[in-house]
Design brief:
Largest sheet: 7 strands, parallel
Family: Belongs to the short-chain dehydrogenases/reductases (SDR) family.
GO biological process, one term: intracellular calcium ion homeostasis
CATH superfamily of the largest domain: NAD(P)-binding Rossmann-like Domain
Strand order of the largest sheet: 3-2-1-4-5-6-7
GO molecular function: all-trans-retinol dehydrogenase (NAD+) activity
Protein name: Dehydrogenase/reductase SDR family member 7C
Pfam family, one: adh_short
CATH architecture of the largest domain: 3-Layer(aba) Sandwich
Radius of gyration: 22 Å
Distance between the termini: 71 Å
Strand content: 5-15%
Order of helices and strands: HEHEHEHEHEHEHHEHH
CATH topology of the largest domain: Rossmann fold
Shape: globular
Length: about 300
């Protein structure tokens, strides 16, 4: 009996591993077929995440519209995609469009250019984002407005320009790449957090409004998008809850992993995705159900960082 069990266990593990491999391969192929021949607009395609999304959707056979502020970097991305394209699979030449979402006046023209070229947009990936860090009283109102233009007014202006086409065709998907700061505020990021809260609120409302037209609205909220070359260092962190919490936040999500999750979100038509390790997820629930405790922990961390003695 014992010998039989010893023999069966490795075979069982091997069988489970084989099934998982087959499932992953089928899911990967299914994901790519879901965007075949689809017109996909990606904003800030020259960012780390934008490049990975471009790679994944281009491999899947999408008709890409790559938007970015720098023409030279757009051309470099174009060349990279063409150079790695598999000749045995059908892929389409990407269209490049100069677009700075903080310049609201040009967004309507870009939307018209895309619609005139392809006649429709099937998937819109709102990926562009501008970050700022610093005490609220030291950040100018002009900079606050610039952050709101890039992170809120820009994406919703492009969405509103393309949405009537989706509604008339009764199909389409809008994906917002947001951030955990759309769910909770982190000190010294007031303008950025405000813009992310605003964007999430807009697209949550829009989701319900366009459901009857079979238009899907998805939001993907990672902690932070990690740089390709930045890895967690061996910092000497003090044993405090606040520092442990924010150290976990800063590690973030790799662009490759996030791009694959965006593809799964499109394929499965998920409404909301929150990519984070257990610490940030717990923080969101604590903020919701135990707000006073959450505020106290964050405030203690700010005082510790600024070396401000507690009054009283």
């Amino acid at each position: 009996m014992g010998v039989t069990a010893v023999l069966i266990l490795p075979l069982l593990l091997l069988g489970i591993s084989g099934l998982l491999f087959i499932y992953q391969e089928v899911s990967r192929l299914w994901s790519k077929s879901a965007v075949q021949n689809k017109v996909v607009v990606i904003t800030d395609a020259i960012s780390g995440l934008g490049k990975e999304c471009a790679r994944v959707f281009h491999t899947g056979g999408a008709r890409l519209v790559l938007c970015g502020k720098n023409w030279e970097r757009l051309e470099n991305l174009y060349d990279a995609l063409i150079s790695v394209a598999d000749p045995s699979k059908q892929t389409f030449t990407p269209k490049l469009v100069l677009l700075d979402l903080s310049d609201i006046s040009c967004v309507q023209d870009v939307a018209k250019e895309v619609l005139d070229c392809y006649g429709c947009v099937d998937i819109l990936l709102n990926n562009a984002s501008v970050k700022i860090k610093g005490p609220a009283h030291k950040i100018s109102l002009e900079l606050d407005k610039k952050i709101m233009d890039a992170n809120y007014f820009g994406p919703i202006t492009l969405t509103k320009a393309l949405l009537p086409n989706m509604i008339s065709r009764r199909t389409g998907q809008i994906v917002l790449i947001n951030n955990i700061q759309g769910k909770l505020g982190i000190p010294f990021r007031t303008a950025y957090a405000a813009s992310k809260h605003a964007a999430l609120g807009f697209f949550d409302c829009l989701r319900a409004e366009v459901e009857e037209y079979d238009v899907v609205v998805s939001t993907v909220s990672p902690t932070f998008i990690r740089s390709y070359c930045i890895h967690p260092g061996q910092g000497h962190w003090e044993a405090s809850i606040w520092k442990f919490f924010f150290r976990k936040l800063t590690y973030g999500v790799h662009p490759v992993d996030l791009a694959e999750e965006v593809m799964r979100t499109v394929r499965r038509k998920k409404q909301e995705v929150f990519m984070a390790n257990p610490i940030p997820k717990a923080a969101v629930y604590i903020r919701t159900f135990f707000p006073e405790f959450f505020f106290a922990v964050v405030a203690c961390g700010v005082k510790d960082k600024l070396n401000v003695p507690e009054e009283g």
